[in-house]
Each structure stands twice: as C-alpha cells, then as structure tokens.
Design goal:
The complex is a heterodimer of chains A (about 475) and B (about 100). By secondary structure, chain A is an alpha+beta fold. Chain A has 13 helices and 19 strands. In chain A, strand 12 and strand 13 form a beta hairpin. Chain B is elongated, with a radius of gyration of 13 Å. The termini of chain B are close together. Classes of the chains: A alpha+beta (about 475), B alpha+beta (about 100). At the A-B interface, helix 9, strand 16, strand 17 and strand 18 of A face strand 3, strand 4 and strand 6 of B.
Amino acid sequence: MQGMSSPFLVGNGAGFSGDRVDAPIPVVRTLIKRGLPAAMFFEVLGERTVALAQLERRRDPELGYEPMLERLLSPILADCFNARIPILGNYGAANPAAAARLVAKLALKLGLPDLKVGLVLGDDVTSTIALDQLPVHEADDSLDMKAARLVAANAYIGAEPLVRALADGADVVVAGRTSDPALAIAPLVHHFGWSWDDWQKIAVGAACGHLLECGSQVTGGVFWDPGFKDIPDPANIGFPIAEVTADGGLVITKAEDTGGLVDLRTVKEQLLYELHDPSAYITPDVVLDISGCSVEQVGKDRVAVHGLTGRARPDTLKVTASFEGTWLGEGEVSVAGPNALARAKATAEVLLQRMTLRGLPVRTRVDLIGVASVHDSDDGALWRGYQGPEPPEVRIRLAAEGADRDAVDQAAREVLALLCCGTAGTGGARWRLTPRILTRSYLVLRERVPTTVSVRTAREIAS
Amino acid sequence: MRQVPLHEVAHSRAGDKGNRLNMSLIPYDPAHYDAIAAQVTEARVLDLFRHRGATKVTRHDLPKLGAFNFVVDDVLEGGVNGSLNLDGHGKTHSFRLLALLVDVP
C-alpha cells in the first residue's frame, strides 16, 4: 500500500480526435508496471468537434460521440479495470449517453459486467440557455447573427462533476464538453482530497492537464525537426505520464519502451502552447499563472515543473456556440518540370479570371503549393512576389467560399476543367466541397450550468 | 557576432485561438536570451505578419523559463472557421518566425 507521500500518476491516451489509436496501450502498461495509484484521460474535443459531432447525431441518434472510442478503449479497458485505474474523457462529445452505452456494451463483451460507467451531463446548454442575453466573449467576424442557424451550444464544465463520478466509484467517466485540464484535475482532487480553493494545488492540476492534454506534443510530437531537434523513433512516440505528489510536485515523463522524449525543450514548448498571457490561463477550476515557473531535468525523460501558482476561479464559464456556416470548395492540380512556375502562375490567373467570367458569388484564394501557400495571404502577395529558384513542381490550389452551395461547387469544378483546358502538363486534379461551422463564445454564470452525474454498472446500463 | 536564422539558435511552436496566434520562442542556449530579446521585437514580428492583416503583437517574456511568448492579433484571416488558408490554425507560422535573421555572440 502506497502512502500519501507517494505520487499519483496521470496518463494521457489521446490529444485530439484523430490521434494514434494504439498510443494508450504502452501508457497503461507503464502505469500498471509502476504499481502506483493512477488514472488515464483522453482529450478528444477541439473547439468545433462538438458541433461536427452534433451534426453526426442529427443523422443518427446513437452517434455523435468520439468515433474512435471503441478502438481507443478496447485494448486497455480490462487492464485498467483490473488495476483500478479509472479512465476519464470528453469522448462523449455531443452524445455522452450513447457513448456510455457503447462503453457498457464493450465492458460486457470483455466480461466486465460490474464495470461502473459514470455519465456526466449538463455541458449541453443548446436548449437551456438563451444565448442572445449573454455577454459575447469571442466571435468569428463573418458570423451574421440574423441569419445564423445554431448547431449546438456547450459550456466548458470543470472538474467537480468528474470528481463526483469518481467518488461514486466510476471506472470510466464519460463526459461531453469539459475544460481540457479538468480531466487531469479531477483524479488528482479525488485522490489527494485537495480543497477546491487550494488554488496552488489546483493550479498544479491544471498545469498537469495543460501539459498532457495534447498527448505526444509534450513527448516529441510537433517538436521533432530533423538535424535540429531529433527524437528517437518518431513512428512510435510514447504518450505522456505525469507524476503528481500531494504537496503539488509535478514531474512529466512518458510511457516506457516507446519513442519520443521528454526534456526541457518539449516541456517549454507545450507549456506555452495556445497560451496568451502566461500569468492568466483561465480554466473553470482555477486561473493558472506560469509566469514564474521553471523546469528542471530530473532524469532521463523526466522533467519537473516548479513555481506554478494559481488564483481564484472565475464566476463564469465559457460557452461555445456553433452555427451553420458557409460552404468551402477546394480544387487542386499539379504541374512539374521545366517552366513549372510560369505555368503555375498562369493557371492561378486563369482560375481567378474564370470566377469573374462566370459571375460566381464566391470569395476565392489561390495558393501555389511549393512556392507560397500556408504563409501567404488571400491576395497571394507572397507567390506573386516570389523571386526564388525555379521549383521542381507546383500544386495549384483554389479555395472558394460562399453561402450558395452550387456556386461553390461550380467554383471548385473549374479546377477540374483544367485537366483539358489548362496549361501543358496539368494533372492530378482533386476537388471537394465541405460545410463550414462558425463559432461564437459567451460567458455564463456557473450556477446556470447545473451538471448531473449517474454511475451505473455495465450490466445495469445494458439491461 | 554572427548572423544566423533564429532556427539555428532557438525553437518555436505555434497555436491558435480564434483569429489570434501565439508562438513560443525558446533559445537553446540561455546565453542568447538577451540578444534575442533585443532583436526579436514586437515591431519586427508584426512586420513579418503584416501581409496577413496582423494588427498587434504582444511579447510576454519568461526569463525564468528561458522563453518568450508572442501573441499576434488578427493574423489568421478570420481563424480556422472562416479562413481559406490550408493552415487555418496557423500551426506553420512558428517556422516563419524562425526564418528571421539575428546577430548572436
């Protein structure tokens, strides 16, 4: 039996919807091998993911949760249950109840009828809160509220309901929109019994969640830069594990026998990821201040984070509302070999001319991929001014956006037409049409977002 | 003193929130911190992203961590929901920053 002075381990199994599905396996193996009290969490909801999931649920009322949920949990569920390692996640997305039923079904299939699933509801405020009476926090410029059609509105809920689920014995906690750090704060508060207004401790939990929530991003993912920042075995990056002590000590490490690394550089990059004012990282549970923090390498793949502080949590929660947006059409073709740049530039001009000739009501942009694209502006300032060497090949991309689906489709198909009408040696046409989502976030008093928690066995849920 | 791209002496990661981008800038060698602080100014970074409509750059200095955090307003062409850019999140911009030339000891 471990005393309270020994660390609690928090493992992360996914940093976004679309992450490597085999990543959780070595994390769980490491947690079990170390034999310390531990929890696993999965963070799979980006800003727009809930809206996309809501559209999925409209098509099928049993869908709208993380599509990879079964793949992520199948290989680890029995091991975690047997080792008393609770699993938490926001994989419920727009349909946590259906996700809970899936977990129950999976548990029965694995012979675990007594596995307890904790269902956390309340983040979905689509039908409970009138948005037009709330102060706006941030909004997409192009959102016209008079014409906007709401898809979903979800509040970023904190760790409290997750802790209630753990206290009621949940082996798997299924939630929708939670703040990302809450998924790490909850098992720590549950284990150590930290007081909710012990801001320094909650800040450590929030930093733990922030560092782990993007999975491999703290262990070498989006870090490796061949020849400059090399990492071992990038095809097999180990996902992160945090060691947290009752007094708020925090060490970041990773799954054993995997690739990637944890060093001062990876931890610094992730500490500042998506952060604006380092002294005020606002979460529903605490305002985290990393402005005075420092990092220390305390072993191979082990970095301690010192000097984290916190202030009282805000009275409000952030609600992100998603609205049906416009249509995006994209088309691409390639040219290669001698005179590729001239052919690419001519193709770009002709595409823009075609938009005018056909009078299509769309906003457009052309990129010359291989010359200038992702760093360029809509008017193509960089590719137009390009003075560099002749590129071996260029891919020409047209992007068109508008409210009229057919016009956008027609714009994208103009790229396809280049297969016959384009410059010499034009090939490799692709085009597609996708609906867009617009978001607007609001602040709402936390009292207006009540949550419910129900913990039932897999057997009970399935019957 | 020698002139080098930032990429040789520092690393960076970009992230987004709406139409706002943040980029860390982390010198490999703490001895370069002051030289980078003096040369990679808010004004210079704003110039780098002016063609994208950037309106303001705020630099937060974290000397204890050995890092800077740049916050660039209005640079993401409306952000991931509205942008026509392939990289609506602006994740690739850290390497635009790292192409800046600096003089280091």
